Amino acid sequence: MARILMVVSAADSLLMKDGSRHPTGYWAEELVTAHRMLTEAGHSIDIATPGGAKPTADLASLSPQGAGGLERADELAGYLHDIEDELRAPLALADVDAGDYDAVVLPGGHGPMADLFEDPDLRRILLKAQADGKIIAPFCHGPAGLLSAIDDGGRFAFAGRRLAVFTNEEELAGGTGENTPWLLESALREKGADVQTGPAWQSHVVVDGNLISGQNPQSSTDVARTVLEALER
User: Fold this and answer.
1) Which residues pair with 162 in a beta bridge?
2) From CA 192, how far away is CA 136, in angstroms rounded?
3) Neighbours of 158 (CB within 10 A)
4) Cα–Cα distances in Å, from 86 out to 52, 72, 108, 157?
5) Residues 189-218: what's their mean pLDDT?
6) What UniProt keywords apply to this chain's record, in alphabetical order (predicted)?
7) How far apart are the first and last CA of the chain?
8) Which percentage of the chain shows pLDDT scores above 90?
9) Count of domains for the chain
10) What would the pLDDT profile of 140-176 be if each residue is shown by its tens digit?
11) What is the pLDDT of residue 205?
12) pLDDT at residue 233 in the model
């Protein structure tokens, strides 16, 4: 069975364009879906965050509206409770040896836009995973973490790669809107990524070699399923 590193933001807020602080963290559906599907398939997961800090769930993702109903919200909260020991004591990214893992999975929420996008330890992990051809699977706002992967020559490691990400359309219409400090789709395009968008709020997964990415929370199941298929090859 495979060993999987799940990189999760440690941020609990995002500095907005107007200078205010927007409460955030990881999006519960994304972390839960990936964690559950991968562990149920028999793979082991280590959760890691910047500094080894306990990650914060975006409370909006645990509300009935954000989760898709009260029953679903309770289910997500219940699963997070079940893995509380893992969430309470994650690995520090600085202590992670990327060579120990078969895949790196990055769920979203706006948190990665506050810390993972420029994290030096994530940079090291992603550059190693990319060089070794290991599976790298970011989805929704998780691809913000890819922005950290600037090689020693100043080149973006994922320039020219096809990927999916939470789109500008989704951010402006249903994300944090016009007050968003920067747009992730635009930032990745500016770095040279080949962003491929699908319909808003529908599952959309893009596979480019070892890079498996998803557009939004609705893509969570399909991303995890695609990672499982890739691990079996």
Assistant:
1) 194
2) 18
3) 24
4) 11, 22, 18, 30
5) 98
6) Glutamine amidotransferase, Lyase, Stress response, Transferase
7) 12
8) 99
9) 1
10) 999 999 999 999 999 999 999 999 999 999 999 999 9
11) 99
12) 86
Q: What are the structure tokens assigned to 161, written together?
A: 């790669």
Per DSSP, the residues of 30-99 read: HHHHHHHHHHHTT-EEEEEEGGGPPP-B-GGGGSHHHHTSHHHHHHHHHHHHHTHHHHHSPEEGGG--GG
DSSP summary character for residue 141: T
pLDDT of 33 above 90: yes
3-class secondary structure, 100: helix
Where residue 230 falls (left for φ over 0; alpha for ψ -120 to 50; beta otherwise) is: alpha
Residue with tokens 């079940």: 82
What is the per-residue pLDDT for 159? 98
Range(s) of the domain holding residue 37: 3-232
CA atoms of 52 and 121, how far apart (whole Å):
12
Q: Helix, strand, coil proportions of the chain in percent (round to 5)?
A: 45, 20, 35
Burial class (CB in 10 A: 0-12, 13-18, 19+), 232: exposed
- Secondary structure letter of residue 25 according to DSSP: -
Q: What is the mean pLDDT of the chain?
A: 98
Question: The CATH number of the domain where 138 resides is what?
Answer: 3.40.50.880
Q: b/e for 182-210, b at 16 or more Cβ within 10 A?
A: ebbbebbeebebebebbeebebbbbbbeb
